[in-house]
Amino acid sequence: MSTYQTLYRKWRPKTFSEMVGQSAIRKTLRNQVKTGRIGHAYLFCGSRGTGKTSAAKILARAVNCEHPKDGDPCGECASCVAIGSEASLDVFEMDAASNSRVEDMREVLEKVEYPPQFSRYKVYIIDEVHMLSNSAFNALLKTLEEPPEYMIFILATTEPQKLPVTILSRCQRYDFGRISPEEIAGRLRLGVEGSGKRADEAALNLIAQAAEGGMRDAWSILDMCLGMEDEVTEETVRTVLGATDRQTLFQMADAVADFDGDKAIRLCDRVMREGRDVQVFLRDFSAHLRKLLIAKLCGAEPALLQVSGDQAGNYRDQAARFTVRHLERAAECVMKAEGDTRWAASARGVMEMAVLGACDRASSGDTRALEERVEQLEKQLSELQSGGRILSAPVKTQPSAPQEKEKEPPAPIPEDEVWKKAKASLPGMITGLLSQARYIGCVNHEYRVALSEEAGLNLNLLSSPDRLTEIEEALRRAGDPDARFQALREGRPETAEHERLVREALRALRETIPEDKLIIES
To answer: Which residues lie below 8 Å from residue 196, measured CB to CB, with a gap of 6+?
Structure first.
């Protein structure tokens, strides 16, 4: 019975051309091999599974290859075969995580003075180099600065910030970025076909997203899926990952869109009865809300959403049921809960509070929620107007009493003078609050001031009903009988227009619908 070789080892790239992603790094290393401009120390850093160790092994073969092909090792010469089978005495791999002591490093460095036996270069690959002790780094430092001409050091780490600057300054540093889901899915497709198996495109895309930029993680997930079934489907991947099915995510998003807390709690109960992990569900739902937000802002582009064309249409249709602010608020609730579940005694309670918070209608103390309420009211008003139910607010006129002699109306007082005169007549406390605001003019008899983000308390004080009444009465005494007052937050002038539209809508509703039939939610 032959020994099974895991997919990530079987499909480990053997040349720079086979590497997934990292195009700039591949090009640079190949050019160095072609031109012979080989450095004596390299530092490969980046997150797990992005190709650091694979690139180090390929570079070790390439610099010692007898017949390199455009900077890639040929894979056929004696040196390539020996290094590939890990039988070469001139290429040494060391795991610094388990050999971090200075004694281990000294033992390795004692062999540096011996030239290579069968190859052109002697290559030392030190993985997880950030785990070395300070004494071990000091022992490595001198050799790394002035190694023999036949010596090459390749250091690999996921945490370069832990390395001493004296080590960093002596290495050519290459940062390996996360691999894109498209590149991961393409490489997995080759692996599935090469193994004589089958996998759905949706399944490969789901694996690529779950891998979070790590090719090795993607191979490991695919390995588990193929161990379960020869034909990998999206449902297979979700079962292996313990992820939530797409239908449940859409149903939960529908509940949030409808502010239906009852439905959301029942869906949470179903998630728990199906044995799903709470943190995995919250992570999946957070990703779902993110896609809805992207579809709302940028359109349903399959490449941007990382889904098929049909699925992109589903996201577009559901995103149309939300406002942008509602999606932002819901995503914040879910993402916060995802972190809170790590420490909570009841993960289920955290999940339920998160979805209820996402379903909760705007509260009066939340600025973003207030804007959301204004946006919803404007939408409802637009629908009423388009349906012909409200055309305009009727204006009630009172018959004027007969006058013996018409008098010319007095000339209106300029608005700036009205403001100055009214401000001077106000009590000292209100004058002090207004002195910290910026007068931004008058629109349709509405006098406006703006306050900075830091002056939130002053904004609340000026917006209280008592002070609004006092300021408006002062403005009317100063010469503008229709005067109104509005305090705004700096940079948000549209708030007044929103509130004006809402007031007009409510006034129109009250005048066209009987009082006992009119119910307005606060």
So the answer is: none
Shared domain for 256 and 301, answered yes or no, is yes
Q: Are 12 and 124 contained in the same domain?
A: yes
> Residue 497 has which token pair?
């227009």
Query: Sign (positive/negative) of CA torsion 114, 116, 117, 123?
Result: positive
- Is the predicted pLDDT of residue 43 greater than 90, yes or no? yes
* 170, 24: one domain: yes
Q: Residue 270 and residue 254: Cα distance in Å, rounded?
A: 16
Residues in the chain: 522
Q: Final residue of a domain: which of 148, 176, 204?
A: 176
Range of the domain at 473: 415-491
**Is residue 519 over pLDDT 90?**
no
The pLDDT of residue 448 = 87
pLDDT of residue 497: 55
Q: How far is the C-alpha of 494 from the C-alpha of 468, rounded, in Å?
A: 19
User: What pLDDT, on the 0 to 100 scale, is given for residue 407?
Assistant: 56
Instruction: Enumerate residues 6+ apart whose C-beta is below 8 A from 444.
Output: none
Pairing of strands 446-451, 438-443: antiparallel
3-state secondary structure (DSSP) of residue 320: coil
Determine the Cα–Cα distance for residues 319 and 328; give it in Å rounded to an integer.
12
Which pLDDT tens digit goes with each residue over 115-127?
A: 888 889 999 999 9
In degrees, rounded to 5, the angle at the alpha carbon of residue 379 between the alpha carbons of residues 356 and 357 is 10
CB neighbours (10 Å) of residue 158?
Answer: 17
Give 381's contacts (C-beta < 8 A, 6+ positions apart).
390, 501, 502, 505
CA-angle at 133, arms to 128 and 135, nearest 5°: 135
Choosing from 157, 176, 195, the residue where a domain stops is 176
Contact at 8 Å (CB) between 235 and 245? Answer: yes
* Residue pLDDT, tens place only, 340-361: 888 888 899 999 999 999 988 7
- The model carries a pTM of 0.61
Total number of domains constituting the chain: 4
Q: Which of these ranges, 144-153, 164-173, 403-412, 424-433, has the smallest mean pLDDT?
A: 403-412
Hey, how many other C-beta atoms are within 10 angstroms of the C-beta on 470? 14
For the cut 80, the answer to whether the pLDDT of residue 511 exceeds it is no
DSSP H helices, 229-260, are: 234-241, 246-257
Identify the pLDDT of residue 392.
46
